[in-house]
Design a protein that fits this description.
Length: 238
């Protein structure tokens, strides 16, 4: 007598784990959809790095020249006297056709400069305000010397300012462009050679020498030779 066959059990499938009919699972492997997803992930381009935002740039300020504070000049003279000096200077001091050094000295004294004895003043010398100038005995002012003296300029005795040298007592404040001034002193026996620039607030010491084309922006010790290193050969042309 044969026993009836037991019915084949039906596997229980939990929701979400059903296999897609057209993507059969290979023995011991992943289903086809999972393999395609893994291959795509392996060949995909790496994500581009995120560019950080550019930092905020504060614009460089510009000084409004209409807002520059006026210069209160304690040594100012009436406008008519300034204009008159310009005329006299053009005729008697800067004029290269006027040969007399003594006449130049007299013209400067007439407008308030203190000029010592035996001073030689060559043609084309320019003095902005003679009432701010003191020159000792036996000084030489070479041709084309320009003294822009909103503040005091004091030259001791036996001082030489050679051709085209520029002495200035004024500048501008970097933050608001207002005029600022400081006196300049050149002590006895000093020689400022040709085409130098002497800036405000400087003292050139006794018997010092400033070499040609030097910018003097600090005090020069007595007896020193002050200047930039000399030029040198740095290569071949051919």
């Amino acid at each position: 007598m044969t026993s009836p066959e037991a019915p084949t059990p039906v596997p229980t499938v939990r929701p979400g784990t059903e296999l897609v009919p057209d993507m059969p699972t290979q023995p011991g492997g992943l289903d086809r959809r999972a393999r395609i997803a893994r291959a795509s992930a392996a060949t995909a381009a790496p994500p581009r790095p995120t560019t950080p935002p550019a930092p905020a740039v504060t614009p460089v300020p510009v000084v409004d020249l209409n807002e520059v504070p006026p210069f209160d000049d304690p040594r100012a003279r009436p406008a008519w006297r300034v204009v008159l000096w310009w005329v006299v200077q053009r005729l008697l001091v800067t004029n290269s056709l006027q040969p007399s050094s003594a006449l130049r000295a007299r013209a400067l004294r007439a407008f308030g400069a203190e000029i010592g004895a035996d001073v030689i003043i060559r043609p084309r010398v320019r003095i902005r305000f003679p009432w701010n100038l003191t020159v000792g005995d036996r000084c030489w002012l070479g041709e084309g010397v320009w003294i822009s003296n909103r503040d005091r300029v004091v030259l001791g005795s036996d001082v030489v300012l050679s051709q085209e040298t520029f002495v200035t007592t004024g500048s501008h404040d970097r933050r608001h462009m207002g005029v600022v001034t400081s006196p300049v002193v050149v002590e006895d026996g000093a020689w400022v050679t040709t085409r130098c620039i002497v800036l405000r607030g400087v003292r050139v010491g006794r018997s010092a020498i400033v070499t040609p084309n030097t910018v003097v922006d600090r005090d020069v010790p007595p007896g020193a030779v002050y200047g930039a290193p000399r030029a040198s050969v740095i290569g071949e042309r051919f």
